[in-house]
Amino acid sequence: DGTELTAKPKRSFYAARDLYKYRHQYPNFKDLRYQNDLCNLRFYKNKIPFKPDGVYIEEVLNKWKGDYEKLEHNHTYIQWLFPLREQGLNFYAKELTTYEIEEFKKTKEAIRRFLLAYKMMLEFFGIKLIDKTGNVARAANWQERFQHLNESQHNYLRITRILKSLGELGYESFKSPLVKLILHEALVEDTIPNIKQSALEYFVYTIRDRRERRKLLRFAQQHYTPSEHFIWGPPRKQKLEGSKTNKKPASPVSIHNSCISKHKKTKEPKNTSASGSSGGKTTEERKVELTKNGEENDQDEQEMNCDAVRQNNSEKNSDTDSGQLSKSEDIHDTSDRKEDTSHSKKDDERLNSDCGNHPGTKEKDLCDTENSSSSTSADLQDNLDKDTLTGGTTTKNKDELK
């Protein structure tokens, strides 16, 4: 029992689909069916009895009123007292049609009896109708009837049908006061706690006005316990927090800024001023191309930056150092082939020949510089990456490394 009480409720797909059809897609059949019969209107005119019991409406309103045992155990009269444009459990009852609804609203005798039938069922539930606007309150026998209503849950289906029928026959405004009273008794007063699931799944969603439905859902959310189990109104705060957490790890701006910060300009030696001026021109041209090309150049820059970071992290492995330098040079050749094809090819050959002829001395120098000061090796590596990207010669890179 403890696990059932604390279990989080689940929305009913059947209820949502059924009440959506009621609010938007009625009728559920071709409207020409039983158009000339008008059996529901004739029953309320006291011309025919309801089937299969054979009882007229006047007898039901006069003799069945207050007979709670008969109203509880008889299951065939409710489809006749509150007709709908859909088939119920009593197959002798006929569905309403739009033509019959219009004729029903014009007949004062039928409307008067319909309101009397509504009052009779409210008293059966322990509720009384206060005024003509549909306001309701507890009846004199509310304690006994609320206890019975809390136990006999098949009456929740009857309340749903009554609410639907009120909307069909011109009393849409009567729904909200009844649903509000039921929610108050179930959530605040705790007199009929077993009805709250049906009230939130069915009763609220019989109301066609969306603003009225939202008011009732807000009222229910304020008094629902535990509050985290309220599933009929999505909590806004949780949605905002979830969206923020989803956006934080995938922010492209922070990744772009972090990559740019790794490639700030470092101070170059004085003897490389001539080559730096030619390299500066190429960097300015690339800045123009970056602004023109947009996202594609941003991706290329990120890939080059990632290659530079990989080169800096792989200096500890002697075998992979020369391979990565040649790989970065190959990427430089493919990207700058249009600008300086002959010059980049010569640099590539020189760098590959140097790495192939003197791998031991070069790797030893790199390891020595890394062990002596990590910051100096990082600056030299950044200068190496800049010169390779901007088209600098490999001979100057070797001088800087030494």
TrEMBL record:
One of its GO terms (molecular function) is opioid growth factor receptor activity. InterPro entries: OGF_rcpt, OGFr. Residues 228-402 are annotated as: Disordered. Residues 310-326, 369-380 have a biased composition (Polar residues). GO terms for cellular component: membrane. Residues 282-295, 327-352 have a biased composition (Basic and acidic residues). It holds the Pfam family OGFr_N. This is OGRL1 protein.
